């Protein structure tokens, strides 16, 4: 009687672990996809910031040139 209860409990725990393992692998795949998207967005933002910085330097140079004249 006791052995049957232990076997049932072990089986139940094993089933839960398998389910958790599947869910964790699914979450890992989703996180990998999101990391790829985030990396692309960060790259685009850095590019926009770089271009904006160059325009600010050029605009500031033009303004200071005309102000000195």
Tags for this entry?
rod-shaped; 69 residues; mainly alpha; 1 helix; single chain
Characterization of this structure:
- The model has no long low-confidence stretch (mean pLDDT 92).
- The protein has one helix at residues 2-68.
- 0% of the residues are buried.
- The protein has one helix and no strands.
- By secondary structure, it is mainly α.
- It is rod-shaped, with a radius of gyration of 30 Å.
Number of beta strands: 0
- How would you classify the helix and strand content by structural class? mainly alpha
Could you tell me the radius of gyration in angstroms? Answer: 30 Å
- Give the biggest beta sheet: none
The percentage helix is over 70%
Spans of 5+ residues with little confidence (pLDDT < 50)? none
Q: State the order of secondary-structure elements, H for helix, E for strand.
A: H
Tally of contiguous helical segments: 1
Mean pLDDT: 92
Cα distance, first to last residue? 100 Å
Proportion of strand residues: under 5%
Shape: rod-shaped
């Amino acid at each position: 009687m006791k052995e049957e209860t232990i076997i049932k409990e072990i089986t139940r725990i094993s089933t839960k672990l398998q389910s958790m393992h599947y869910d964790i692998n699914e979450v890992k795949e989703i996180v990998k996809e999101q990391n790829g998207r985030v990396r692309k967005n960060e790259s685009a933002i850095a590019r926009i910031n770089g271009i904006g910085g160059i325009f600010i330097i050029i605009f500031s140079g033009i303004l200071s040139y005309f102000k000195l004249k």
